[in-house]
């Protein structure tokens, strides 16, 4: 009798625990903001990368909230949103650049051609060759122009001999629209080029290892309008062979270079859709407010 | 009622510029509405002097059109508007063209009223014309109201009512043809009445266009050149 009473008490405690858990879960669900559900078409007909329910935490702080998005082959997708909205964090998940940040934790699924990017034994170096990155500030190596481009192919063993390496360097510089400007001074230091040229050198360095996807984190924010126009023109040409994800603070740039636009707000993907639609008739009020300059 | 319920721009100046354009377009609408009313009155009441005033006051509307056009061009060049702002600018640029044309038609009414005031009036010519005119005025008023309040439902109602104006116009045409057949000497006068009716019918068409721009501005949906059924689908889909 005594035993059954004590069991009953445990039952009650358990069920109280459960109730509490449910209450907490409900509270969490209720705490989801109105914009938690993405508006627009997250899927792509021919996805190159596919993300589902991606959450990113820096320590206890959640920076990205269950973002799901496909990135189609040969498309340029622009990520826009106010500072701190998580667009760069999300971009950096795509080639595991966040691995270098100690307390950063990524959950959910990120796939490149149906392979899990976050698989335990994934070779991150080869992943980053497939998913290249161009940063905000041009960051050429303190080496010659030639060596800057040849660096990747060398460490990945992409060229069997000097002739092949030369070929890769030439093609990459040509594709990056820099060849004519540097062909006579391949031995001079990359850091001696102008800002716009340095950025194109970084793009050449990225495409030298034949990536599938190129991530660009505000690639033009340190450049003048002419250099910016050249990079934008280049992005459009590169689209023939690569998939490009670009984070930009310039809405005009997003409108000019991308086919799809994704709008992030406070770590949520609020809206995604064709750029032409997002910039003429966005569905979500937050997107509308942001692109028409009604924020803040 | 669907409205563009948006907050204010971070840039107060941009907010002000847009507001100025909206106000100017509404002022232009008011002027055109008055022109049509006066033109019609001059016609019905054989008031040649009023007709003359209508005919000569069209330049004010034209001036305003140029002013608004320039302001819109400035905004596009300097502010690069997007989404609802862009739609407002596009809708305003198109609206003022139609308003200006309505002004031109009202000017025609003024001119005809001067001519018709100097000849004998046969009874019956103007009864139906007056009716048509009132219908057109009603549509124009409703349309400008819808523009001021960004009321797509009303814009839709007015756009649909253009069919009534057209029916009325056709009935008037038939009547005027009978007059001409009965008494060939009246042909000259009847033709003038016909031109007036034609001007009113055109005003109805321009009014309908403005209603379509209102729907585009508020909802981002283009309902031009599609069937009524499709229009209803488009409107209800958002």
Question: What is the arithmetic mean of pLDDT of chain A?
Answer: 89
Main sheet strand line-up of chain A: 1-11-10-4-9-8-7
How is the main sheet of chain A built? 7 strands, mixed
What structural class is derived from the secondary structure elements of chain A?
alpha/beta
Q: Helix segment count of chain A?
A: 11
Can you tell me the overall shape of chain A?
Answer: globular
Indicate the mean pLDDT of chain B. 90
Indicate the low-confidence ranges of chain B by residue numbers.
none
How can the largest sheet of chain B be summarized? none
Number of strands of chain A: 11
Q: Work out the largest interface and the residue count of each chain.
A: A-B, 18 and 16 residues
Total number of strands of chain B: 0
How much is the radius of gyration of chain A in Å?
A: 23 Å
Poorly predicted sequence stretches spanning 5 or more consecutive residues of chain A: 1-7
Q: Approximately how much helix is present in the residues of chain B?
A: over 70%
Strand content of chain B: under 5%
Strand content of chain A: 15-25%
Element string of chain B (H = helix, E = strand) = HHHHHHHH
Q: What would the principal axes of the Cα set say about the shape of chain B?
A: globular
Can you offer a commentary on this structure?
The complex is a heterodimer of chains A (about 300) and B (about 240). Chain A has about 300 residues and is an alpha/beta fold. Chain A contains 11 helices and 11 strands. Chain A has helices at about 1-30, 85-95, 125-130, 145-155, 160-175, 180, 195-205, 225-240, 250-255, 275-280, 285-290; strands at about 40, 45-60, 60-70, 75-80, 105-110, 115, 130-135, 215, 245, 260-265, 270-275. A 7-stranded mixed β-sheet of chain A has the order 1-11-10-4-9-8-7, sandwiched between helices. A 4-stranded antiparallel β-sheet of chain A has the order 3-2-5-6, with helices on one face. Chain B has helices spanning about 10-45, 50-55, 60-80, 85-115, 125-150, 150-180, 185-220, 230-235. In chain B, helix 2 (about 50-55) packs antiparallel against helix 4 (about 85-115) and helix 4 (about 85-115) packs antiparallel against helix 7. The two termini of chain B are about 10 Å apart. The interface between A and B is medium-sized, with 18 and 16 residues.
